[in-house]
Amino acid sequence: MADERLLEVHGLRKAFGDNVVWEEGNLDLAPGETHAVIGGSGTGKSVLLKCVLGLLDPDSGSIRYRDQELVGMAQGERARMTRDMGMLFQDAALFDSMTVGANVGFELEQMNLMPPKEIRERVTEVLGWVGLPGIEDRDPAQLSGGMRKRVGLARALASGPNLMLYDEPTTGLDPITSDVINELIIYLQEKTHTSGLVITHDMDSAYKIAGRISMLYQGRLVFTGTPEEIRTTDHPVVSQFVHGRAHGPITEGA
Ligand SMILES: Nc1ncnc2c1ncn2[C@@H]1O[C@H](COP(=O)(O)OP(=O)(O)OP(=O)(O)O)[C@@H](O)[C@H]1O
Ligand SMILES: [Mg+2]
Fold first, then answer.
1. What's CA 4's distance to the chain center, in Å?
2. How does DSSP classify residue 78?
3. Strand segments (E) across the chain
4. pLDDT of 189-244, one tens digit each?
5. Ligand 1: residue whose CA is nearest its atom 28
6. Confidence band (pLDDT; 50, 70, 90) for 172?
7. For residue 15, what is the domain's CATH number?
8. Is 18 part of any domain?
9. Residue 34 domain-assigned?
10. Is 173 in the pocket of ligand 1 (CB under 6 A)?
11. Residues by chain with Cβ below 5 Å of ion ligand 2
12. H or E stretch including 184?
């Protein structure tokens, strides 16, 4: 089916008290697509990923995954539906009481997905993918922010997710390491058909990895287009963000 959709978010509304973060969110993702969402700090990008994963409940709206409505679904069933999603949290969210290896293999072990020897091999493999081979025995607390982020990415990838939710995958990384992560996201898309919803402030990364880019502004995705379309649009808010303030927030009322 040409217009098949893996993920469809429609009319998403989410407020925290008086703070209306999502007024009306509409976004979709085709199987195998990488879709980037850009927008100023505090505009609701991480909230979107948390709503998709089921860590936050929208006030209203629809989130369909593989043609199933996730909003309002019983928790157990929802957890089963989202089991093949992987999430890289913005702050990596590692368990500091466990080694790096135990963090990366956590889900595989919890879910009994493979025998211990295979888990160890898989952990070694995905740590290699993120450019951190051989650090299984280190404590997360000993790592730099960028290394923690990459361990968080390895953990999210360990079980071979079908949909990856990446919250700022290149933030805090040097340009060369950022490019390793960009290449990894492209590799996953091309070789394993992994779909990606990517939150980023890094326009170079967005241009490189995404088929489409959407801009979140004042509770809505005000623009969706290809990298070329977003680069050349004269939409004032998008153009300001992309060209003038690619790494910072849009000023109030801009
Ligand atoms: N659990 C929560 N309870 C109350 N308010 C929240 C909660 N989570 C997020 N918010 C608020 O929602 C808004 C959007 O937050 P969010 O973390 O999605 O921003 P963001 O776009 O990811 O920003 P950044 O680029 O800085 O990561 C902020 O005003 C934030 O304070
Ligand atoms: Mg965020």
1. 21
2. H
3. 7-16, 19-29, 34-39, 60-65, 68-69, 85-88, 163-167, 195-199, 212-217, 220-225
4. 998 899 999 999 899 999 999 999 999 999 999 999 999 999 999 999 999 999 87
5. 42
6. confident
7. 3.40.50.300
8. yes
9. yes
10. no
11. 45-46, 90
12. helix 175-192
Ligand 1 nearest atom to the CA of residue 201, by list position: 25
Residue 19 in domain: yes
Domain count, the chain: 1
Tracing tokens 């969706």 back to the chain, one arrives at 224
Per-residue confidence at 253, pLDDT binned at 50, 70, 90? very low
Give me the long-range contacts of 120-124 (CB less than 8 A, separation at least 24).
Answer: 122/158, 123/154, 123/158
* Single pTM value for the model: 0.92
Q: What dihedral do alpha carbons 69, 73, 77, 79 form, nearest 10°?
A: 80
Cα separation, 131 vs 196, in Å, equals: 20
Shortest-distance atom of ligand 1 to CA 56: 1
Q: Would you say how long the chain is, in residues?
A: 254
Examine residue 94 and state whether it is found in any structural domain, yes or no.
no
Domain carrying residue 80: 1-84+165-171+195-247
> Is 16 close to ligand 1, i.e. is its CB under 6 Å away?
yes
Q: How far apart are CA 61 and CA 83, in angstroms?
A: 22
